[in-house]
TrEMBL record:
Span of domain F-box: 4-45
Tree of life domain: Eukaryota
One family name in Pfam for this protein: F-box
Gene3D superfamilies the UniProt entry points to: 1.20.1280.50
Domain KIB1-4 beta-propeller: 68-348
Protein name: Ubiquitin-protein ligase
Coiled coil, from the record: none
PANTHER family: OS07G0183000 PROTEIN-RELATED (PTHR44259), UBIQUITIN-PROTEIN LIGASE (PTHR44259:SF109)
Amino acid sequence: MADWANLPNDLIAHISNRVKVIEDFIAFGAVCTSWRIAATQDNFDVLSPQVPFLMLADGHDDRYQKIYSLSKKKVSRIFLPEVRGSECVSIKEGWLCTVVNDTGEMNLLHPFSRKKIHLPSQKALLNFHDRVGYETNHWGWINLAVLSANPSLMSDYVLMVHHYGSVNCLAFWRSGDLNWTHIDVANFTGGVSAALVYHKGEFYSMSHNGKVRAYEVAGHNTSDQPIVKTRLVVEMAEYTFNPHVAEYYLVELSGALLLVTQFVKSNRYYPNGHGFYNTSKFRVYEVDITRGELKEEMKTLGNLSMFLGNKWASWIDSSKFSGVKPNHIYFADKWLNHCSYLDMGAYNLEDRKIESFYPSLGRRSTSSICTPTWVMPSLTK
């Protein structure tokens, strides 16, 4: 039998460079000491696409989170006490934006390395001009968070967040800033943002009344320019919020900006007035930024697959991975802010049918698991 531990170091490094899936790369580093030395970020293509994990709260110990791998069909646990007592918003680059419920402390948290980047607090976010302060306004949460670049790879990046509640506000923080910079949405009709994305150098938001706006944020060394430029890109009257629409998503896909609408239907109601809501269908359109309109509805994604849920959106080329079906939208949501009710499934754009992808829960669950969150597996220094 070959002595794998004593292979030449340059050969081991070459082998590690050939591993493209993070799960396999971690397993590679667990073989032995010499392989672990080679399993560093420098020997891994951090830009290679990955299949998102589904992160669920561990019902037995709040210091841990469950991680479900769709490609491996495997559930594991990670030690992550930093999210205990916090609201979490997942970001496509593999980070979480966390807000501590009691103090309003905010951080960017990398769930796999547990690295933290401190942000100005939620109190600082809400104490803006004549807005109600954090001490007297406890209803609301950060429901959207988007990065312009991955903090694991870049030192110059922008984080934009939307606070939803009795105070609705849109703000951004540039790496190195001491405080949030607010974007005045008071004059925006239907100013509450339903979706947020970073696309081709600008942030884009969509409100529930169908208005898509672009925000160009200036860098630190551009003091002669406005710190943020805002413009209306698309106005779609037919997308006024209605009871059958659960969520809107803006998705950057292969250089195009897509609008994804998620529809739900109610199955039955309880005496307290709450009901079970199931996702019924999705509709996907490309946004024509130049002409300010939607193109015809997209009937297929080809080999691509989307992942949506909890205001999070991403996609992969499913032909490069096992266990992921092409032309499907994988979704995971919690309706009506109930920690006890999840709606998860895989929607086939071809036949418009929905099937389960998490076998132990099916499509509907009344377990104690709280909000499911997609997280992108990534490495960080």
